[in-house]
Amino acid sequence: MGLSYLKQDFHSKQLNLRQLINGLLLGLVLVGIAAIAIIPMLIHGYPITHSTQFNLSWAFQYQRQFASGQLYPRWLEFSNFGFGNATFVFYPPMLMIATLPFSLLGMDVPSSLIGSMVLAAFTLAWGIYLYAKLYFPSWLALVIAGLAVASPYFLIDIYQRGAIAEVWAIAFIPWVLRATYKLIDQIINQVNQAPVTFSQPNHAISLAIAWGMMGLSHLPTLLISFLVWLLIPLWLLKDLLKHQDQQDQTEGASRTRQRFIVNIGNYVVAVGRCYLSAILGFVGISFFLLPIICDQQLVQIASINFSPEYLPQNRLLLDGLHSLHPHFASHWFETSSGMIPYFGLIVTVLLIGAIAWLINRNDSMGLWLSISAIALLMTTDLGAWLYSFVPILQKIQFSWRWYGLTVTTIPMILGGLGWQIWNQTFGDVASPHHQKLVPCIMVQLLLRKSTQIFITVLIIGLTLTSYIFTDKIVFQHTGFDPALVTKFTTLASQKEFPKEPNVEGQGTSILWWHWRFADGLAIVDVPEYRAKEVTMPMPPDRTYPLASYAEPDTAESIQIQSWQFGRRQILVENQSLGNEGDPNQSNKYLTLRMFYYPAWQVWIDDKSALLDANSQGQVQVAIPQGRHLLRLQYVGTQAEQWGSKISWAMAMVLIYIVLRANFLDPVKS
């Protein structure tokens, strides 16, 4: 008995060790796949993209403020010549959070951005691998993961647009699809045991987390993905109704009506579980989404579509289909980025995939084809009417953002094609039945299989050639300027808060938006996240002190006791003589070098006071007569505060559910 137990224990340890080794090898392969896509960065450094100026300045500020103790720096202090900007109140933080581990390891800003892109590519490869393994063997899942990471649109986002927020959102799409598949599979498996309920939340939690991570990455991709995803549970859960219909045939007509009601009920609850999971994911990131919903009216958010070029209906890849005079886009970016060749690649894969689906009628292939077709349609004038019909879609700015979906679906379609041809070619050649055939028939069979192999090689060759051709165009239009990136990084690292350069000297622009003066670097941020009250031009008309009275000839003392990230403390004196009838006449307005935003709170002698904005949007505070201690702190708007509370509550609920499912469940005990 003891010897048998020891043998079992030994074999169990061997199995665990083998699984560990296999897991490590898989991880190394996936890291290698991710690193291949980032090799140009590893060689040449961080590229000059459409968003390099913001990626560098945001990462510098986020990392500096995080290191000072601000775990979630919503307000970027160095932005707009030190006047600040509510950037990460409205912009998802994942792209900056992903740089923090590399920053903590001592990497500079460009290196941390490169590291975050390796991490994003690894997240995509891992998610695609796990999703593809639901349908295909491991070796093919790895191939599909490689195709996803090498997707032209994924590389365009990284190397030309610098859209690293969108890169992260794309990386979470396969995780959403996989969690959806697992949840639906779990629901269908429960049908034989009991009516479908909202219990057993393990895969529902995974789906909620996946949606939450995408929401913290990129809002346009979240919007696109969610609108398409809404149809997926409705389609895939049709098997639930089909299964019950088969039961109707065996039970007879007497219970048909009752069974029909149960069918509909189970279907509605099952679809509801999927939708509820997504909703829980969004509620879980209320700390970010609630301010987005409630506080947009506080800032100049309309600047997102400041030009007709930033409306998706004006940035189609193929126009003129309605008038039967089709023509590709003539915009400089679409014509030079590799976007149009990628359009052709999608069309080709869709046509071949549609033929395969007509032969095989595979639901999963139909799903991937449908998602890809929707993405393709929305970049043509056939789908352009939706942008005007659903105004929120105009927030995505560019029609080809729908192609983020194809980074997952096109490799999956190619994997499905490859697996279908593989099975038809090799699945029956070595079967005992075929081995007993006469030589003449075997020759015919081998000839047919050889033809299939040729077609397979041809399709794979054309696909890889298309990928290589398009990726080559992408890299041909990628610029690298290590000296410029190093110069900006060096100047940024020399900044000391709250010092800002003297703008009255001669300044030159650097990375288009920012300014370099003799005494340092000044950073400018996007206008859409400035408060509506802000009208000050960038660069400012003069150098502003940290604090001053509105009256330039005043002699009252102003002592800056501390001016730190997220909080200020100032000792002020107002020597004005008040009017006994109206004490407010003695008030003087203290103007601070910071833009107004209502998330800031001010106290005068520990009593809450009113924060206001002057004609240019600077913060001003009415100081009563006498000597006073002024304190300011970024406390967040009501939406930020309530959003944080809701997110903390959801986190506690999630922890409880996980603990109960794994440790407190009496059935498992």
Question: Could you describe the 3D structure shown?
Answer:
- The protein has 669 residues and is α+β, with helices and mostly antiparallel strands.
- It has 24 helices and 14 strands.
- It has helices spanning 2-44, 52-67, 87-90, 94-97, 100-104, 109-132, 138-149, 152-161, 164-190, 202-215, 219-229, 231-236, 238-251, 256-284, 286-294, 332-336, 339-360, 363-377, 385-389, 406-426, 432-435, 439-476, 482-493, 638-664; strands at residues 318-319, 327-328, 508-510, 514-517, 520-522, 547-549, 558-564, 567-574, 588-595, 600-604, 607-609, 611-613, 618-623, 626-634.
- The strands form four sheets. A five-stranded antiparallel sheet has the order 7-8-14-10-11, with no helix packed on it. The protein has a four-stranded antiparallel sheet with strand order 6-9-13-12, with no helix packed on it.
- A hairpin with a 3-residue loop joins strand 3 and strand 4.
- It is globular.
- The relative contact order is 0.11.
Q: Helix proportion of residues, in percent?
A: 55-70%
Q: How much of the sequence is in beta strands?
A: 5-15%
Low-confidence stretches: none
Q: Largest beta sheet: what is the strand line-up? A: 7-8-14-10-11
Radius of gyration: 30 Å
Oligomer: single chain
| Largest sheet geometry | 5 strands, antiparallel
Q: What is the residue-averaged pLDDT?
A: 86
First CA to last CA: what distance? 26 Å
Q: How many DSSP-defined strands?
A: 14
How many DSSP helices? 24
Which shape, going by the Cα principal axes?
Answer: globular
